[in-house]
Amino acid sequence: MQALEASLKTLLGSLPHGPDKRTLDSLVAETLATTKSKSPADIRKNQWEYVLKNEIFTLAATEGTALQDPNTTYYSELRERLDVVLTFTEHDACEQTVPFNVLQDLLETQTIASCSHIFSWIEERADRLTAGMVPQKGKALVLLRTLNDLLRRLSKMGNTTLFCGRILTFLSQVFPLGERSGVNLRGEYGSVWEGPGVKKPEPVIKTEPKKDAGEDKMQVDEPQAEEKPDPEAKKREQKQEFYETFWSLQLPFSRPPLFAEPGAFGRFKEAVNKVLPVIKEATAKERALMGSKTSSGGASHLLKRKRDSEPVEDNAGRDYFFARYLTSPELLDLEIADTHFRRQFLFQLLILLNHLLTFTKPAKSAWSTSRNRSLQIDFTLDPTDSQWVHEMAAKVAEELRQTSPNGRAFADTVHVVLEREKNWVRWKNELCLPFDKKPWAQDMVDESGTTRKVGLEEATREQRKKMRMDPEPWPHRLGSAPLTEIWAMGYRDLSDLEHPFQPGDVKDFVKKVKQEDARIDMRKKQLTKAAERIAQARAKAAAAREAAASPAKEPALAQETTAPAPAQTSPRPTSASAPLHPSLPAKPGTAPPTSASMDSVAQPTPALTPAPAPVATPSPAPAPAAPEPAPTLPADEIIAGYEESKNRWAWLALRTARDTYLQHFGKIGTGDILLLMQEIEKEKKEREERERAATEETARRSLRVLVTGGAGYIGSHVIYSLQETRRYKVISIDNHHNSTPKALLRVAELARNSLPADASEQDKESAEIDAHRADLTKPDEIRAVFEKYGKGGIWGVVHIAAYKAVGESTEVPLTYYANNVGATVSLLQIMKEFDCSRIVYSSSATVYGVPPVIPIPETTRLQAQSPYGKTKVMSETIIEDLCSAEPKKWRALSLRYFNPAGAHPSGLIGEDPLGRPGNLLPLLAQMAVGRVKDPKLSVFGNDYPTPDGTCVRDYLHVLDLAKGHLLALEALEPNSTVFDSCPTETRYKAYNLGKGKGMSVLQIVEAMRKATGFDYKYEIVGRRKGDVPDLTADPSIAEKELGFTAPQTLETMCRDLWNWQTKNPNGYEG
What we know:
This protein has a 7-stranded parallel β-sheet, sandwiched between helices. Strands 9, 11, 13 and 15 form a 4-stranded mixed β-sheet that branches. Strands 1-2 form a two-stranded antiparallel sheet. The longest helix has 40 residues, at 506-545. Helices cover 52% and strands 7% of the residues. The model is unreliable at 209-225, 294-324 and 551-627 (pLDDT under 50). It folds into 4 domains: 1-174; 253-286 and 325-433, no CATH class; 504-523 and 638-689, no CATH class; 702-1063, Rossmann fold. It is of the alpha/beta class. Helix 30 (713-725) packs parallel to helix 31 (742-753).
């Protein structure tokens, strides 16, 4: 043994710095030969193994002190000794598993930093270490176990992600994908949870009781304790109980087979039912806190608790401390308040619930077999428990979605992980059946006739060479011969092929004439190419026969062989009938009237002439210094036929146009149908321009504007603003579902009272309202209104009518969709039918739902929370799609109201809802006037993330809102520049109408108290479904593009509202 140790020392001393494999092989072979006679053969391997291990571990023991030296050579010496061990093994001086056993012991004892160096050596020597390795046997098992143990150790550390990735990459390269050596097929689990929540047996200590003292204590102390319970002690007891319950769930997490014990599943259910509500409450508090942080401004990020790295992570490379857990009843509250802790717990619970679902009776029968008994436990979920597990899994998944930030994305990732994990579970239940496929191969016969298998690269070598070659030019310019020919014939659209020719209009005949021209051009090109090919072939043949002869004979030969033939068609019998008009040619087959028409026909110009004429053969273009002239085209019967067809189409066109367009015949010369078509199109455009000008003039004199819901609160004030300009004639449609016709009478009274003494008839007409009682859900009634004014008789529409109660919409959503969306579609269809293409749509701020930013810009995503808000989103989308489909015709603006309030200062018109008011301000006004007898105002929620906890809304005066509609109508006029900034030609935009300043419910109550002097009492009740915390507008775009402003203050709104309510305590019916 000493001789071997001395020989090893000599070997290590003679090693150069960084020895290569050849040097090591020679030195190790020399050492083995020298020591062969110094130890018995039967124990020689064992002795070398001991000596090598002792050398390695002696050096490893100095790690702590060696690493304190900045110039240490510890790692280089360790790598040299590992190389020596590996070389000895390769020379069969040790067992094949010795290097792996050494590595296993080293990786267990060294620090993480040293383990990284050791693993780098493993990566560099991977080829030598894995040579001859058989999966699931020998050194493969030792290597797999060693690296898995290292991964488990790294999982308890921080900042080791890259190291773990290196290990997993190495394993994937060394072991096949279907390797089952690392799969737990024996049903084993990790270490059992021994932390809080586990009831440990307490040692029994027998002592002699002191009866007298005990009895005195029982008689005196315990009744006093019952009479005066300590609330703090009870709270501590409850906290301790929850603490034990929470951490007791770690026991089934760590060892699921415990469910086979009687009552284990019941205890698990009870614990989950206690813990999950606490988790949900913590998530809800966090979401509310995040909402308040968002509204509080930019300083919110300073309040966010930073997750400092734990000391264990910082000292991972130097110390050997591994903390198992650190918790207490006091710390548990802080842990649950942490999003990452809750997510870890919920993820863990979701894994266990999915595992339990594999033990339902149907699921268990699908995977359990006699071969995988080690994976089975004596436990089956009954249907009731299975239903509970399903419901709890859904609740846990939903709770993951509610966590912030990015809870939905995190929950989706967890779902994907669990779904993929099911495949691995199934593979494990099937005892890891192999699924590797053999490499693709194909039989190929080589040049010698031998058949051999080749891989994909060799089999496709010739095809890949061909693919790298440039393809030959495609002969057809448009993809195929038929498509190229169709294009050359003049067809430019599918409609040319779908709709066959139907004579009746001049342009149809012109299209046919152009097609004949295209055929003639195609035929001439074909003949020219054929003549050129013949001429070239003859020139080459002549040059070959008479190399020394003069080329002067060739032009004569070409002229002789290509002599032009007359291109005239066979003569037809002439007709004595006179032409129908001096400009009309004779019918096909008759003699032409003049020689001028013959000349005009013979010219192949765009001006098409119908008279038959011979086809002119173009003379060859002179080519100076050319050896031979270009070939001339012979007479061709096909071209002559095309010419005759062209003349026939031209004659038919002029014959058809005689009755309708005879006034143009004097302008077109001798039958030029192209010029005729241009004159016809010119006349048509002039007529359309005159009609359009007349329509615009009529509309300009009296712009009729239809207002839906005109008798309502907003509609009546919009009509007042329209009449105030004296530019519009107002038409009102209302079914008086929540309004009264008296409102329109008062609006008209206001308009008449504001007329000057010298008012014109048009001014007086604008002060009257054409009121129609009609229901938008009944198209026949609406169509009758439009028919009264005819096509183009209504200039534009202000669409206000809709159901608008958020709470009610959640109870009867179908009614809201039918009235708000269905009626809008019907109205748009009737508008299109009667050439009315301008609309101002009354939308709402509820389209934004819970907005991500306050104040709300128009670019905010539309995500309504209530059916009412969704009807507004749908209607906006429908109108935008219509404007996109017909951008030259439709113009539309959507006005997203926030909260209109107040009334006309005269007190003649205001808000008078039928029944109990659904909005806050009219409700407060009616309470103050005694119309609503409620003793207290119900405030829906005071736990919103707002300054006082109540909902915040953006209130603006109803007259400011009405002026916004007036500005929107002006933006729909033809000379408006509002749509110039649109990214596409679609003329549609949406604007916010608000003040840009939010006011809470309690602030509104206080303002009304000042305006009315009424002492309002209120009580806080639960939140109302569909309400959002804050809806404050960002009206900057409306201010910039429309010129919209809302200058009226909250005090003015409350004053005008109270003025209306005191003058009309019972509304319009008072």
